Structure formats: C-alpha cells, structure tokens
Design the sequence.
C-alpha cells in the first residue's frame, strides 16, 4: 500500500481575484509522515468514488477547486466549490495548497 | 416576502436550464436540497446534507434579522462588523456596531467605513435604502480563514480574508472591493443575474462598476480624476501590478511571474469561452466594464450622476436573470433615452460605448 506511486494536483480557480493557482505534490517523493497523512486523507475522502462534479451552492466570488489524483495508472478528478467541501476534502486541499509546488 | 418568492422562482428556472452542465451547482433553495436528499444518489445526498448543515447558521440569522428589520425606521444606515479570528464560522464575534467607537483593528474600521460609503452611494444618489431597499443591516466579517486570499458575499453578508501577505494584502484595503461585494447583494435582490457565462460576467461587472463609483464618490473624483481600477493596494509589495482589474484598460492591471498576466479582454471579439471561473465571469466582466468607462468618459462629470444612474436603473428595473451583453446594451441605451432624451448626447455616448467594445 505505502509503496504505490501517487501524484496529487489541485487547481484553484474563481474567487474575487480569479487568478488560478495550481499546486502539485508527488506523494512518493515526500517525507514519510506527510506522505502517510496524504494517503490517509485520500482514503478518508473516498476520493476515487466521488462524482466528477460535486454540487455546491453558488455564491459570488467563491473559489472552485479541481483535485486530481493519479495512483498506479488510475486517475480521477473532482471539481468542488468551496461551499460544498467536507472536512476531509478541506484538510486535503489545505495541505496541498501549503506544501505543493 | 415578495422578493423572496421571486428569487426562489428564479433559482428554480436556472437549475432547470443548466441541468445539462451541473444539476444543482447554482443557488439551491431549501426545497431543492430536500429533493436531493430524498431522491439523489448516496454521494449527492451526503453533499446536500453537508451543504444544508453549513448553511443552517445563515438561515437562522436571516430569520432573526427579518424580525429586527420591522422595528427600524426606513432610510437608516445600520452596520455591524464581526471578527472570525481566522476561523470560518460566521459571523464571528461582534466588534463594532452602528455609532460604536472605532476599533483598534484597521480591517474592522475599513469594513465599517466601506459599507457606509456604499450605503451612502446607493441611498444618496439612487434613493435606495440598503441592499434590499428595505434597510437591511449591513453585516461584515473580517479575518475570515487563515491567509485567505478572497472576499465574498454569501447571500447575507460580506466576508473578507486577510490575504496571504505574499501576493495579496487584506481585502478590506480597497474600498471598491467592499462596494463590489455589497453590490452583489443588490444584484441578488434585483436583476438576479445568473452567475455563469455572460449574465455572470454582467453580475461581476455591475459589482466592479458600483465598486469603482463608491471609491470615486468617496474621493469626490470626476471621470478624469478616477483611477478606474479594482483592487488598487490589494497586491502585496513586490508583486508587479497596479490592481486586479482596470475598467479603463482591461488586461493591463498586472503582469507578474507569480500571478501571470491580467487576462481581461476589452472587446467582445476576444471573449473568453472556456469553462473556468463559471465561464469567465471575472474575465469577461471587462467588456461591460469598459463600455461603462467609455460612456462615462463621453458623458463626463461625476460618473455616478448620469452614467451610474443609467446602469443602476437597468439593474433595478430592466435586466432579468439570464440577460446577456446585448440585452444590457439595449437596456442602457433605452434608459439613457428615457432619462435624457432620444438622441441626446448621453444616449449617443452609451450607444457609442457598446459599439466600441463590439457588443452592438
Ligand atoms: Zn464579485
């Protein structure tokens, strides 16, 4: 399990500034602690079973996130507005925005 | 009551219309949420429940505020500013209320003063009593989230982040940002412009236009003195740019290695047609923005007096939720004719402006 290759990309669009920001992490190349944490977050969010688009209430100037996970040739993307993000997804996105490049 | 009913009908229409893109990504009235919870699949149900939970605090507050507004005489400015203390629970702790002393927190005072200047523009110039024209209390929350690079209107109140300090300063720093957010509230109660595609870009444009007018009026600037920028002062030191958007010269507000280049087009032929940002609502807003700028420059004087009035009446009386740029053009041209005479200089100026940007 721990050895599986994993890359996560998050793209933030929208917001008042509307300046898109993309962050990518190669989980395989991360320190063990953080890597484990990220893998657990992906697991906890049930990521590969999420719909491609998660409905959210539309509020002006809110962020929209597109999160893509590539794992062992499997790839899945989920688009979600910030009003509809659950706590699992939110901590995942926060960590990626902080530690991604 | 009447307003709320009208809104929910609009929201429903939009949901039906856009169902091929995203079944419920618009304003979701509670009854639709209930429908999803009863009939949606498991995932949808989970997210509907979650959205419902997170909006419950707002709904509760709206009911309380609804009761309060009966006790208030019309035409009275009422503001409150709360502090979320870097959390995301709204509204947060009450820091300053109407007629309360200034805070030691600059963001609190900026939110308070900016809300006041916006109220004054709509009240003194357009004879509008607050966002809903019924004296709605203007609530603002500052210090929302951690290093949060955003400001928004959540349907009931304004919310401001502190910015990350590297790219953006605190979002209350620019008074036009405050006017922008409050105008989203006015639009919600009036034209209800759907936040997608051209109607969404119009929604954004009205917010930029009145945001800029709030700034111009607070500085007593004529069309020639105004900077016509949105978010001047918002970019952190070291970022190469003057602001986020320019009504005068769309596409020139910033050009920075970290932020990229201002993508706004000035002309309809360069309309962004991608799906990002709800179909480019913050990108294509520059086309009607520039039309407003051109009309205001040709009409001259203080932009809020004539050009602002034409645009305000279009927002209040004419435009409907699915309006596109062409509708906005014909609405403002007609209103200019009604206010200042057919073939008047004012009407000519408005028509020229929309022609120049390529909408008509
Ligand atoms: Zn906006």
Sequence:
């Amino acid at each position: 399990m721990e050895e599986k290759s994993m890359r996560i990309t998050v793209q933030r669009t929208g917001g008042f500034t509307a300046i898109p920001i993309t962050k990518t992490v190669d989980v395989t190349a991360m320190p063990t602690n953080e890597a484990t944490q990220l893998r657990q977050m992906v697991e906890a969010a049930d990521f590969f079973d999420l719909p491609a688009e998660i409905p959210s209430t539309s509020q002006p100037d809110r962020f929209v996130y597109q999160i893509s996970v590539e794992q062992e040739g499997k790839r899945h993307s989920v688009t979600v507005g910030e009003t509809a993000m659950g706590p699992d997804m939110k901590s995942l996105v926060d960590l990626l925005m902080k530690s991604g490049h | 009551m009447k307003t709320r009913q009208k809104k929910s009908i609009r929201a429903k229409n939009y949901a039906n219309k856009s169902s091929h893109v995203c079944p419920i990504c618009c304003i979701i009235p509670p009854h639709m949420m209930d429908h999803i919870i009863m009939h949606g699949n498991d995932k949808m149900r989970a997210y509907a429940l979650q959205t419902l939970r997170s909006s419950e605090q707002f709904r509760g507050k709206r009911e309380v505020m609804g009761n309060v507004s009966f006790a208030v005489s019309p035409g009275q400015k009422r503001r409150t500013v709360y502090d979320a203390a870097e959390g995301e629970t709204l509204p947060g702790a009450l820091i300053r209320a109407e007629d309360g002393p200034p805070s030691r927190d600059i963001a609190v005072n900026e939110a308070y003063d900016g809300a006041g200047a916006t109220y004054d523009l709509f009240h003194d110039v357009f004879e509008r009593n607050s966002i809903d024209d019924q004296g709605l209390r203007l609530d603002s929350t500052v210090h929302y989230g951690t290093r949060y690079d955003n400001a928004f209107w959540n349907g009931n109140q304004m919310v401001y982040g502190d910015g990350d300090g590297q790219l953006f300063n605190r979002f209350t720093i620019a008074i036009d940002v405050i006017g922008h957010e409050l105008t989203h509230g006015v639009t919600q109660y009036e034209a209800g412009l759907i936040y997608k595609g051209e109607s969404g870009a119009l929604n954004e444009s009205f917010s930029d236009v009145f945001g800029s007018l709030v700034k111009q009026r607070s500085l007593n600037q004529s069309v020639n003195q105004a900077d016509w920028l949105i978010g001047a002062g918002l970019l952190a030191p070291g970022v190469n740019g003057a602001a986020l958007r320019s009504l005068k010269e769309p596409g020139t507000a910033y050009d920075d290695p970290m932020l990229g280049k201002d993508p706004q087009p000035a002309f309809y032929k360069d309309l962004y047609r991608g799906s990002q940002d709800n179909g480019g609502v913050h990108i294509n807003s520059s086309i009607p923005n520039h039309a407003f700028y051109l009309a205001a420059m040709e009409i001259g004087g203080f932009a809020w007096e004539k050009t602002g009035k034409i645009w305000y009446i279009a927002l209040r009386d004419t435009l409907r939720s699915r309006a596109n740029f062409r509708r906005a053009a014909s609405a403002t041209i007609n209103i200019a004719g009604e206010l200042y005479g057919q073939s008047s200089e004012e009407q000519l100026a408005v028509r020229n402006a929309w022609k120049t940007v390529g909408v008509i």
Remarks:
- The interface with chain B takes residues 13-20, 49-51, 53-64, 81, 83-84, 86 of chain A (CB under 8 Å).
- The first strand of chain A starts at residue 6 and ends at 14.
- Residues 56 and 85 of chain A are 8 Å apart (CA to CA).
- The longest helix of chain A spans residues 32-44.
